[in-house]
Amino acid sequence: MPDSPMPDSPMPETGPADAPVRFDTKVALVIRADLAVWQKLNVAAFLATGIAAAAPDALGEAYVDGAGRRYGRMLGQPMLIFAADGEQLRTVREGALERGLTLVPYVAAMFSTGHDAANRAVFQAENPDAPDLVGLALRGPKKAVDKTVKGLGLHG
Fold first, then answer.
1. Which structural domains are found in the chain, ordered by start?
2. Helix (H) or strand (E) holding 146
3. What is the pLDDT of residue 7?
4. What is the CA radius of gyration of the chain?
5. How confident is the model over 95-146, as pLDDT tens digits?
6. What is the pLDDT of residue 10?
7. Which residues of 1-18 are buried (b: 16+ CB within 10 A; e: fewer)?
8. Residue 43 forms beta bridges with which residues?
9. Average pLDDT, the chain
């Protein structure tokens, strides 16, 4: 993550429920394609929470059902999930760092831990120039994110 993160843009104005909404920012999750399904889902979930923590202003309002019961909030903008191999993940990481995007990493060693402090410890033990990435989340200006993930296909 950059030393001085870029300011997050506020949520777009809301209009009619069926009106298209345009976002100045984009969220992309990039997950290694050769992982087991449970690993892909695990990585996606953790990366999404990292983006929510890094950009709390991107969270929408709480959901309320027809009976008035309140539910939790979610990011108010779409997240696209891309597939990549190890080399593509390294390229995305380099591009995100160069562009100053909000960047959330997940490395293979995190699969063997059981809590956040252990995750941070194994991440810090990684080679800082070549971590064993299995996933990345990015958020930033739409054009910069698009350039960073250019050439990647969506997870199928």
1. 25-154 (3.40.1490.10)
2. helix 142-148
3. 41
4. 16
5. 999 999 999 999 999 999 999 999 999 999 999 999 999 999 999 999 999 9
6. 46
7. eeeeeeebbebeeeeeee
8. none
9. 90
Mean pLDDT, to the nearest integer, of 74-103?
96
**Across the chain, which distance is largest between two alpha carbons, in Å?**
52
Q: What is the 3-state secondary structure (H, E, C) of 37-72?
A: HHHHHHHHHHHHHHHHHHCHHHECCCEECCCCCEEC
Residue 151 structure tokens? 């050439």
Cα separation of 128 and 130, whole Å?
A: 6
Q: What are phi and psi of 8, to 5 degrees?
A: -85, 140
| Cα 96 to Cα 144: distance, rounded to the nearest angstrom | 8
pLDDT in the model for residue 3: 39
